[in-house]
Amino acid sequence: MIDAYPNSFAVIEHHFIDNETPWGLARANYYQVIYVPWFMHDGLVETWPIETYESLFLARQQVTTPVVMEVGAALIEGHTYEVQLRTSLEPSAPEPLAVRTYAVLVEDYYPAYPSYSRNGFRTATDTADFTLAPGESRFEARIIELPGDANVENLRIIAWAQMPEPLGPAEVYQAAKAVWPFGALGEAGACCLPSGGCAMLSAAGCVLAGGLQQGLVDCAAVQCPQPGACCLAPEQGLCQEMLAAHCTALAGTFHGENSPCEDLGPLAGHALHFDGVAGAVQVPHAPALSFAAGQALTLEAWVRPDFFDDVRMILAKDADGLTNYSFRVDEVGKLQFYYRDAANTTWFMYATSTAAVALGQWSHVAVTHVFGAGENIRLYINGQPVAGEWTTPPSDGPYQGTGDLLIGAGLPDNLGDPLIRVFPGEIDEARIWNVVRSGSEISANMTVHVSSSPDLVACWRLDEGHGTSAGDQTGAHDGTLLADAAWIALDACAPPTQLGDLNCDGVVDFEDINAFVLALGGQGPYEAQYPMCQWLNADCNGDGSVNFDDINAFVALLGG
Hints:
Blueprint: E1 14-16, H1 22-31, E2 36-38, E3 40-41, E4 45-46, H2 52-61, E5 67-77, E6 80-89, E7 97-107, E8 121-124, E9 128-132, E10 137-145, E11 155-162, E12 172-179, E13 189-192, E14 198-201, H3 203-208, E15 212-213, E16 228-231, E17 239-242, H4 244-249, E18 253-254, E19 269-275, E20 280-283, E21 296-305, E22 312-317, E23 325-329, E24 334-340, E25 347-356, E26 363-370, E27 377-381, E28 384-386, E29 388-390, E30 405-407, E31 424-433, H5 439-445, E32 456-460, E33 469-470, E34 479-482, E35 486-490, H6 513-520, H7 523-529, H8 551-558
Antiparallel strand pairs: 1-2, 3-4, 5-6, 6-10, 7-8, 7-9, 7-11, 11-12, 13-14, 13-15, 16-17, 16-18, 19-31, 19-35, 20-30, 20-34, 21-26, 21-31, 22-23, 22-30, 23-24, 24-25, 25-29, 26-27, 27-28, 31-32, 33-34
Helix pairs in contact: 6-7
């Protein structure tokens, strides 16, 4: 029938489940579903065998219809198209007509083998219901994605208008077909896309594509704005790349065209870049930095790796062969925590099973452990626990040495040799605690500077931005930059962090009291009522947690 009426007739097959017949299995392989056809003509008449189609079609051709339909398509980018429908009711129609429109993509293709295999329906757009008055036309724009495996020369867009029957068959009033290469309907103009590209789309299609309509001009006459990093509210995600106009509409902060999100750090200020060859921060040995059996440890840092190729260090205490503890990423970005046993006879290593840090993006990583207790270990990526396992479960505590601690590299066993396992990329806000921090504490503190706490052993903000010193917030464990460690400036997409400003209006006053009391009740209830604010603004004494010990400090802030 398609061969007999190539310009005026199209067959669409409706399929039911079939996992028995060879041609059903052939369709299953092609479409990744298992279907068998069932033929309907005009949405009303069951037509089997297929030979009955022609007589019914010829009879249907004699029935006049006041509905006129056109279909076209315009390329947005890649495999994405704007499908355009225009449905009209002739002025001679006796009364308004309710219609429902459809648009589907089919592939008209008969492979040489197997002979029973035939392609058909590939994808569809949403439907629309509306009523046309005599003489009225309606233009519709919809988005459709072409299958990447399809031969475009065999693709057809078929649209039809039918009775809006909610259940069962419905009479088809009119149909139209567009063949490759698709042509657009009506007026089209330059549309600046979210990607920064330009496409000739209708005004409605430009809106659907998330673009900005530039009027009825050609793309060659337009210089489209380029997307950049947009810092959004916490509940929308920290950063998304989009056009400045879209960022403003979402009440975000735009960081300029062509500014990628991965260049925004977790905390505004600075970070250190390591070249993967020689750079590091060296912190002299101190008893507080070394741990023994039964002691608790939490390590944290923000990292952005430039590449993965081998095991690379984030934090490492003591020489490589005599490690008291080490936190690192492997050749595919999985996290590893390991240490040498106290007797210097074996290694204990725990690694994430599948989860890995993102290449080229900032990730917060953390590990908590009680030395010697294999069951008491947790790894976190961006505040979320990730599964892992021990290669050898620990049986005792770590090796006790007097080697230095390094940020961004490992210390060689022969201290005269170059640094090993140098991290390739950026590290920021490295912390060591002598307690097991909970998952909620780690998550809540990721994007907030920590000032002091009885459990905080060391915190290197890495915000100096110049010189060769990396100061520890506790004042006890300052580090020195080695070789090629270099400062980089950062902006951030973190929530506002003004201590005491619990309603986030920019000032600390009596309007914050009720919000402060709510924050004392827990992070969840507070953030449910103040989603744009940072719970740790209530950490007024700066110890890394929110509790009743913050009340006096909050009252002092109220007093100015």
